[in-house]
Amino acid sequence: MAPRASWKGYLKLSLVSCPVRLYPATSTSERISFNQLHKKTHNRINIKPVDPELGLVERSDLVKGYEYEDKKYIIIEDSDLESIKIESTHTMNIEAFVDEGSVDVIYQDAPYYLAPDGAMAEETFVVLREALRKTGKLAIARLVLSSRERVITIGARETGMFVCTLRNPSEVRGTAEYFGNIPVGKPDAEMLQLAEALIQQKQTTFDPKNYEDRYEVALMQMIREKLKGHKPIVAAAPERGNVINLMDALKASLSQSKPAAKSKTKAEPAAKSKEKAVPAAAAKPAAKKKA
Question: Rounded to two decimals, what is the model's pTM?
Answer without folding.
Answer: 0.72
